[in-house]
């Protein structure tokens, strides 16, 4: 029966399967192997710690022939450290320069790569050189994700990418990285870039100032995520329309007042503050949030002074839940505690753990004590636990338009997604 299906239908079935099942489907027969081939060979992963071993060399030699399925169908290249060699593994005695040329030939054989995910390992200098040189010639690349491990300062060159649509860079959070100037130049040169995620040490300010200072840039970002909030970033956000996804992760610094001018095109907004501050949700920013008519997903932190020991009308959790009625497109809300200012620079994690445990309890109590007559399908997330509105009792006067229907008092209850 399976063999009666068309190649297109078999491929569609393959899209519904986990990647681990593709190998099993290919092993059924020649026809299924042919049908599922484009999907099976659509991505390839190279492990830095295995490339000097015999099995790694064999893979590179196979790729270098240019006659593999990956040469034809691969669209995604992933480079990561992988599991280190075992005692039983054979280490190749191939000279370093020969291995570098072999790796370069293997990478050059992957002509259709559109996405590269690279976890840079500073200890593998040979691989760094070969991969850097390959990236400098990857003119068709559309998505690039680079994560630096922070051990050492690898000299990598990313090149120029005229077709780049998505750029995600993660640098060490504890020190500056030499890659930042390159990233700033790439962003300024890629007019088609729509997704930009940068995180790490506080050295991204120059990039945002460059974007703000150059009025001639045609850059129109739709998805921005960063752990470093600066005045220049906020200036860019307030002057640029069209942003659909914005994540200010652990926001801490900058002029928060500028952030109240949010683009009304936002579909996703995440602003979990690093420490208790005006970046958390409260009466001061509820009006700005309620203007986001297209918003579907909202993630916000709350401060202890706005949750603990305050009446419901001023409780930040209560304010968020009541704001739901003013956001017609909203589907999911996540509420989390911000760290206390007293824990800034703490050497021990116990005070932070105690504060978060206390805050999670306060947030949970405020959520469970909330009630409303307004229907809503919004799911509220506290950590990994989802809540939604359910009837808690019959109350209120009969509906004046339909006396047979009574108003339902609703409250948030835990449920399984």
Radius of gyration: 26 Å
Quick check: average pLDDT? 83
State the helix count.
13
Shape: globular
The amount of helix comes to 25-40%
User: What does the oligomeric state look like here?
Assistant: single chain
Order of helices and strands: HHHEHHEHEHEEHEHEHEEHEHEHEEEE
Structural class: alpha/beta
Distance between the termini: 35 Å
**What is the tally of beta strands?**
15
Main sheet properties = 15 strands, mixed
Instruction: Tell me the β content.
Output: 15-25%
In terms of per-residue confidence, which ranges show pLDDT below 50 for 5 or more consecutive residues? 398-405
**What is the topology, as strand order, of the major beta sheet?**
1-2-3-4-5-6-7-8-9-10-11-13-14-15-12
Organism: Mycena alexandri
InterPro entries: LRR_dom_sf
Protein name: F-box domain-containing protein
Which secondary structure elements does this structure contain, and how are they paired or packed?
Blueprint: H1 7-16, H2 19-26, H3 30-40, E1 43-47, H4 54-64, H5 69-73, E2 76-80, H6 96-108, E3 115-120, H7 125-135, E4 143-148, E5 166-170, H8 180-189, E6 195-199, H9 205-213, E7 223-226, H10 231-239, E8 245-248, E9 268-271, H11 286-290, E10 297-302, H12 316-323, E11 332-337, H13 350-369, E12 371-372, E13 379-382, E14 385-398, E15 406-414
Parallel strand pairs: 1-2, 2-3, 3-4, 4-5, 5-6, 6-7, 7-8, 8-9, 9-10, 10-11, 11-13
Antiparallel strand pairs: 12-15, 13-14, 14-15
Protein name: F-box domain-containing protein
InterPro entries: LRR_dom_sf (IPR032675)
């Amino acid at each position: 029966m399976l063999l009666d299906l068309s190649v297109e239908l078999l491929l569609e079935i393959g899209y519904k399967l986990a990647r681990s099942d593709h190998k099993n489907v290919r092993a059924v027969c020649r026809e299924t192997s042919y049908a599922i081939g484009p999907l099976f060979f659509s991505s390839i992963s190279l492990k830095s710690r295995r490339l000097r071993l015999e099995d790694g060399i064999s893979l590179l030699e196979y790729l270098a022939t240019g006659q593999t399925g990956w040469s034809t169908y691969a669209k995604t290249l992933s480079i990561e450290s992988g599991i280190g060699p075992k005692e039983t593994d054979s280490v190749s005695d191939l000279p370093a320069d020969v291995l570098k040329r072999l790796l370069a030939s293997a990478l050059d054989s992957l002509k259709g790569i559109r996405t590269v995910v690279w976890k840079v390992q500073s200890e593998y200098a040979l691989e760094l050189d070969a991969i850097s040189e390959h990236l400098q010639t990857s003119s068709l690349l559309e998505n690039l994700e680079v994560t630096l491990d922070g051990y050492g300062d690898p000299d990598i060159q990313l090149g120029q990418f005229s077709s780049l649509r998505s750029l995600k860079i993660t640098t060490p959070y504890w020190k500056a990285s030499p890659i930042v100037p390159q990233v700033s130049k790439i962003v300024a040169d890629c007019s088609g870039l729509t997704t930009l995620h940068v995180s790490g040490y506080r050295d991204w300010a120059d990039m945002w100032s460059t974007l703000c200072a150059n009025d001639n840039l045609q850059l129109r970002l739709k998805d921005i995520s960063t752990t470093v909030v600066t005045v220049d970033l906020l200036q860019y956000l307030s002057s640029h329309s069209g942003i659909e996804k914005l994540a200010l992760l652990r926001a801490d610094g900058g002029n928060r007042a500028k952030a109240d001018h949010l683009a009304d095109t936002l579909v996703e907004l995440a602003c979990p503050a690093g420490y208790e501050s005006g970046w958390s949700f409260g009466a001061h920013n509820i009006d700005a949030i309620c203007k986001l008519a297209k918003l579907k997903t909202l993630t916000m932190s709350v401060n202890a002074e706005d949750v603990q020991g305050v009446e419901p009308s001023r409780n930040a959790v209560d304010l968020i839940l009541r704001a739901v009625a003013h956001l017609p497109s909203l589907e999911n809300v996540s509420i989390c505690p911000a760290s206390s200012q007293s824990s800034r620079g703490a050497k021990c994690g116990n005070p932070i753990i105690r504060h978060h445990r206390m805050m999670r309890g306060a947030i949970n109590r405020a959520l469970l004590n909330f009630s409303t007559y307004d229907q809503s399908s919004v799911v509220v997330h506290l950590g990994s636990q989802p809540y939604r509105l359910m009837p808690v009792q019959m109350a209120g006067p009969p509906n004046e338009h339909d006396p047979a229907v009574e108003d339902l008092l609703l409250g948030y209850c835990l449920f399984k997604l």
